[in-house]
Amino acid sequence: MRWIALGSILLVLLLTLGPTVHSLVRQRGEIARLQTSVAEQEVDNAALRAEQERWKDPAYVEQQARDRLKFVKVGDRSYTVIDPEEAARPAVTGASVAAPKANGSAPWYGQLWQSIQLADRPTAGMAP
Questions:
Q1: Which of 15-29, 43-57, 65-79 has the highest mean pLDDT?
Q2: DSSP code at position 97
Q3: Closest Cα partner for 4 from 126, 30, 12?
C-alpha cells in the first residue's frame, strides 16, 4: 500500500512539475537566442558608431563627395573611364522612342482625353 501511495505522489509531482520544467527549458533557449541577437546588434551598433565618427571628419566627407558624387575642386580635372563592354551593347530596336502626341491646340482637358485614348492603343509608339 505504501508503494502505491508513493507512486501516486510521484506521478502527481511529475504531472505538476513536467510542464513547468518544459517551460523553463524553452525559456532558457529563447534567452540564449535573444542574447545572441543582442550581441550581433551591439556589433552592428559599434560599426555604425564608427561610421558616424568618420562622417564627422571633413576630409572623409570631402573624399566621399569626390567618390560618390563626382565633385571636384575648382581647378581640378575630373576623368571618367567608360567601360568598353558597356559601350558595345546593341541598341534596342522594334519600338520608337515616343508615342504619338495629343493635339497641342486642344484645351488641357481635350489633350488629357486624347492622351488617355492614345495610351489605350496597344500599338501606340511602335514602328510600322
A1: 43-57
A2: S
A3: 12
Residue 108 and residue 67: Cα distance in Å, rounded? 45
List C-alpha distances in Å: 123 to 91, 95, 103, 127: 20, 10, 18, 9
Mean pLDDT in residue range 43-68: 94
Q: Which helix (H) or strand (E) holds 6?
A: helix 2-55
What average pLDDT does the segment 42-68 reach?
A: 94
* pLDDT tens column, 4-22: 998 999 889 888 888 899 9
What pTM was computed for the model? 0.45
3-class SS of residue 95: strand
- For 10-69, the DSSP string reads HHHHHHHHHHHHHHHHHHHHHHHHHHHHHHHHHHHHHHHHHHHHHHTSHHHHHHHHHHHH
Cα angle: 24, vertex 25, 31; to 5 degrees: 85
